[in-house]
Amino acid sequence: MEVRPGPESRLLSALRISEIFASIQGEGRLAGTPSVFVRTSFCNLRCRWCDTPYTSWTPEFEWMDAASLGERVERLSAEHGTRHLVLTGGEPLLQAEALRPLCERWWHEGYHLTLETNATIFEPLAVHLASLSPKLRHSIPDTSQNGHGPELSFWHARTRLQPDVIRSFLDRYNGGNGRDCQVKFVVESERELGEIDSLAAQIPIPREKILLMPQVVETAKIPRAYASIRELCRRTGFGFSPRLHIERFGNRRGT
Ligand code: SF4
Questions:
Q1: SS3 letters for 73-122?
Q2: Each residue of 1-58: pLDDT tens digit?
Q3: What is the CATH number of domain 8-204?
Q4: Is 119 in the pocket of ligand 1 (CB under 6 A)?
Q5: CA–CA distance, 255 with 249 (Å, rounded to integer)
Q6: SS3 content of the chain, % helix, strand, coil (to 5)
Q7: DSSP state, 55?
Q8: What is the pLDDT of residues 114-144, one digit of tens each?
Q9: How far does residue 1's CA lie from ligand 1's centre (Å)?
Q10: Which of 59, 66, 174, 225 falls between 20 and 30 A from 125, CA-CA?
């Protein structure tokens, strides 16, 4: 007897997608690598300075089934001559069930997968690089200024750091079996260093996994922001993450 997928399985395999595009990886240890990006919509956080508010504060999306998404990504990858794929958001792990079979297929077909996550949800997807970006205190939104109720600030403040989730990622993506991770903190100034140090000690996070990335979305402000965060990296021994896509294209969608 032929078993056809019912409506529930179609729902599980459909994804809310914000955009799919080819560009360069702008951040982290693979910065500069030509890649195809899948940006999922919706996030469980609301960072004050979110650079993709169209996936968090005011989510926009189209529904795509996993098969169409897979075809589009593979076509873009062939057209742009890259096997590097990046799952980003929003928070991609809100849609982990639908992403899981795609990741497994891409892994077995020899693509290199990076997952960019805010590290509040653990799902062991088949990816090579888990790029964790836990959110520090300065990400908490001031909802009195933006028309949202204070509940949103409380929710964000309570949810933003999940030490057990970060531990689970560090355990699984530990450099073995082709799986590794990096921990990328968005930093505005040295005020954030104390929080990073205490988190790194509490979890613990190996120092060599930690990157500091400037909180900057305006191209004109890049030189100054880079200089100050590079100086923090020099003093602390943490790695530096650029934002190459902002340098080259400005804060535009599809880059
Ligand atoms: S976790 Fe990322 S996508 Fe979500 S609100 Fe914060 S910066 Fe935006």
A1: HHHHHHHHCCCEEEEECCCHHHHHHHHHHHHHHHHHCCCEEEEEECCCCC
A2: 333 444 444 446 799 999 999 999 999 999 999 999 999 999 999 999 999 999 999 9
A3: 3.20.20.70
A4: no
A5: 7
A6: 40, 20, 35
A7: G
A8: 999 999 999 999 999 999 999 999 999 987 7
A9: 46
A10: 59
Question: Does 90 sit in the ligand 1 pocket, CB within 6 Å?
Answer: yes
Ligand 1 pocket test, candidate residues 39, 41, 50, most atoms within 8 A of CB:
50
Buried b / exposed e over 129-166, threshold 16 CB at 10 Å, is bbbbbbbbebbbbebeeeeeeeebbebbeeebbbeebb
User: Looking at ligand 1, which residue's alpha carbon is closest to its atom 3?
Assistant: 90
Q: Which of 40, 42, 135 to mutate to test the pocket of ligand 1 (most atoms within 8 A of CB)?
A: 135
Task: At 245, give phi and psi (nearest 5°).
Answer: -65, -35
Sign of the alpha-carbon torsion through 186, 85, 120, 64: positive
Q: Angle at CA 79, nearest 5°, toward 241 and 55?
A: 50
pTM higher than the cut 0.85:
yes
pLDDT tens figures, 31-40: 999 999 999 9
- Of 193, 195, 202, give the one whose Cα is nearest residue 237: 193
Whole-angstrom Cα distance, residue 163 to residue 201? 11
Report how far ligand 1's centroid is from the alpha carbon of 6 (Å): 33
**What are the structural domain ranges in the chain?**
8-204
